[in-house]
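Structural prep section.
Before we set up the soaks we want a predicted structure of the protein with pyridoxal-5'-phosphate in place, mainly to decide which crystallisation condition to try first. Input record follows.
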Amino acid sequence: MVKKTVYFDNAATSWPKPEGVYKAAEIYLRGSGASPGRSSYTQAIQVERQVFETRERAAAFLGAARPEEIIFTLNATDALNMALKGILEPGDHVVYTSLEHNSVNRPLHSLCHHRQVTATMVDSDPTGFLNVQEIANAVNPQTKLIVCTHASNVLGRVTPVKEISRLAREKGVYFLIDAAQTAGSVEIDLQDIKPHLAAFTGHKGLLGPPGVGMLYVRPGVRLRPWREGGTGSRSEEDRQPEMMPDYLEAGTMNAPGLAGLNAGLKFIQETGIPAMARHEQGLVQKLVAGLREIKQVQVFRPPGNYPSTAVVSFILKGLDCGEMGHLLEHYYGIMCRTGLHCAPNAHRTIGTFPQGTVRFSLSYFNREEEIDYALQAIREIARGLQ
Ligand SMILES: Cc1ncc(COP(=O)(O)O)c(C=O)c1O
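Run finished without errors. Recording the tokens verbatim:
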């Protein structure tokens, strides 16, 4: 086979980006360059308008009622830290799940060790199914927060966030969604799901550049700021301005990143999530069917129809995942992620800890020929093991 370049690591960060994303970042860097919200000269005001436009577009796209409910962050990790460390106090209890990424697990670990927070982990079943009743059973009188990923980055299965949100409201606790894997791939309507907080990343399904993310903060939810400093507003005051989004957005903004995110969001709005998801799910079905025909392959995707992202985890029995990743890249030019994908408890649940899995994560820009090519590569590698 002639070696190609195939990118199957979109759950880590998406690539390629829509053309408009490259252009928007370049236009900012070459043409304006000013810092938004700080100065009154024309270029700075133009950039401020662009940042506002991105905030407005993101709010409309995600179903937030007002633009200022969207806080720009560095990435989903930053947004999750902002939420967890901003809301949890000594003595609070938090419920989380075995599907969480380390960007939830590690801040919680640190809060449990340094801020006298306690946490209970609820296991999913081996298919990534979360039982909402088990989450309810884990809530106790000290529980302040339930945090849950919207889709596992290992298994792709979408979690029932609307039901969990309802449960949180019934129990009188906050609900934080980690939507790093779903935004841009699965329709999200914050008015319908009604979480208190939701963390997003700009560089995966939203197709923006790295270095941008978002935190949705429902009105009335008060967080301690994760960072404080210059905002360009109320500069005469020592304390952080209380108005949103300034309260949580200290420091010079990533204006080229936000310009790129705006273009990524625009592309998705114009193309439509249903059309994009149809294409991605068609590729997933072809990939899973082909993988299942290779007898040494075990695919971690339950049969049946359920909402999922375009993530497919598998192992080739008899070959270490890291070695498999190396062979795929070295001989076939296929880029993918191997190992634990920063979600060790998900692997404990599905029985692949500590070696992990090989993960192919697809995007709207992948093509059927790439799936055929990858399946042929895996068949060749599997034959070499016999
Ligand atoms: C479920 C989940 N949460 C959080 C993150 C962290 O995202 P970011 O790299 O934008 O901080 C990831 C990234 O892989 C993820 O998959």
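Observations: The chain has a mean pLDDT of 96.
Flagged for discussion at group meeting.
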